[in-house]
Amino acid sequence: MGRKRWSTAYKDLRGRWKDNSAAVRRLVEDAREGRDWSRRIQWLLAEDSEKAAPRPPRCSFPLDLRHVTFDGMDLSDTHFPSACLVGATAYGVQAARINCRKATLHASKWGKATLTDACFHAVEGNKVYFGHSDLRNADFSDARLRYASFRDCDLRGANFNNADLRFAQLNEARCEGANFSGAAIYGASLWDLSYDHVVSDSLDLSPDADRSVTTTSLRLAPLVYFLSRDRHFAEVIAILKLKTVVILGKDNTDEAYARLRVMAAVAESRGMIPILVRQQTELYGEPFLKKALLYCNLARYVIVENSAPAGQIVELPLTLFQGSVTAVLQEEGKGSTWLLEELLVRQRNVKRFTYPPGGLEAAVQEASEWCETAWTEFAEAYARQYGRLSLTYGDS
Asked: Which of 7, 31, 259, 266 could link 78 by a cystine bridge, Cβ 3.0 to 4.6 Å?
C-alpha cells in the first residue's frame, strides 16, 4: 500500500476487523479510558510491506469500525465517541458505562448485552438491534434510532428525551421510570410494555416528526393517533362494546368492595373485561357521576349490586334512561331503596336477580347470560328500526 494513502486507509478499515480478533482486543484496551487507538492498528496499515510502517499521526477523526466484531467481550468503560460502528456486532458484551456518544450505528447488533448506564446520546442508526439487553439508566437522548429493536429489553430509568423512535419495536420492554418526553414514536410497536412511572410529556405521533399530533400517554399513543387521523370513533366504541361490562354498587367498605371484585372475577371468567369505576383514574375536569355514566355508555352492559344503599341509587336511573342493558342483583331480604322499584318494573332494559347468601357468583352468571341475550335483541331491533332511515353502520 502506498504510504501516501495511509490517511485514507486509516479512516476506512472496513472488513479487516473480522479476521483480526487480536487487534480488536488491543483496540478495546486502548478504547478503555479514551487512550489513542492509532498505535494499536498501525500494523494493519503496513500490510505485506517488508519495511516497518511509520507511526500514523494521532487520530484526529472518528475511527471507522464498520463490521467490527465485539461479541462476548468486556467493553465496560470504553470510549467510542463519534465512531462509525455500521454493521458492528456486539452480542452478549459486558458494556456498562460504554460511551458511544454521537456514534453511527446503522444495522449494528447489541443483542443480549449488558449496557447499563451506557451513553448513546445523539447516535444515528437505522435498524439497530438491542433485543433482550439490559439498558437500565442508558442515555438515548436526541438519538435517531428508527426501526430499532428494543424487544424484551430492560429500559428502567433509560432516557429517550427527544429521541426519534419511529417504527421502533418496544414489545415486552420494561420501561418503569424511563423518560420518553418529546420522543417521536410514530409507527412504534408497543405491545405488553411495563409503564409504571413513565415520563411521556409531549410524545410526537406525527409521521414526519413535526409535532402535529402529540400525546402525554405512551400506552395510548397508537389509539390517540388513530382517532386524530381517521376519526373512526364509532369503530373504537364498537370494539369496547364487544367485551366490557361495568360493575356498580357500594364500594366504600372492604366487605362491599370485595363483593364487587367477586362479580368482576365472574365476568372475567366469561371472557369479559370488567370495569370497576373505583379503580379507574379520575377524568380531569369531569365530575365523578359523569365518569361513571361514561363507562356505562361505553360498556356492553351494566351489572349493579343493589343490596345496600350507595351511589347506584343515583347512577341506576340515569343508566337506564340512557338505554344501557342493566342487571340488578339483590341479596334476599335486602335492597337499597323503594324509590327504584318503579324503574325495575317499568323499564324493559333492566332485570332484577335475587340470590341467597353465598349465591352471588351464580347470580352473576345468570345475570350475564340475560344481559347478553337482551343486548342482542335490542341491537337487532334497533338495526331493523333504523335501517328504514338509511343510516350508516360501517362496512359490515
From this structure: 31
Domain layout of the chain by residue ranges = 1-60, 65-230, 236-387
The Cα-based distances of 252 to 6, 257, 297, 308, 371 in angstroms read 79, 7, 23, 11, 26
The pTM (predicted TM-score) of the whole model is 0.65
- 291-316 burial, b at 16+ Cβ within 10 Å, e below that, comes to ebbebbbbbbbbbbbbbbebbbeebb
3-state secondary structure of 303: strand
CA-CA distance, 86 to 68, in Å (whole number)?
A: 8
- Angstrom distances, CA of residue 103 to CA of 10, 97, 373, 394: 17, 15, 62, 49
Query: What are all long-range contacts of 290-295, with beta carbons under 8 Å and residues at least 24 apart?
Result: 292/246, 292/248, 293/318, 293/319, 293/322, 295/244, 295/246
Superfamily of domain 65-230: E3 ubiquitin-protein ligase SopA (2.160.20.80)
Cell digits for 290? 359523569
Looking at residue 378, its amino acid is: F
Q: Which residues contact 32 (CB under 8 A, 6 or more apart)?
A: 76, 77, 78, 79
CATH topology of domain 236-387: Rossmann fold (3.40.50)
What is the overall mean pLDDT for the chain? 83
Least Cα distance to 296 among 237, 255, 217 occurs for 237
Give which of 212, 141, 203, 139 is closest to 166, Cα–Cα: 203
Q: How does pLDDT run across 42-71, given as a tens digit for each residue?
A: 444 444 333 343 443 334 445 678 888 888
Which amino acid is located at 277 in the chain? V
Distance CA 108, CA 91 (A): 10
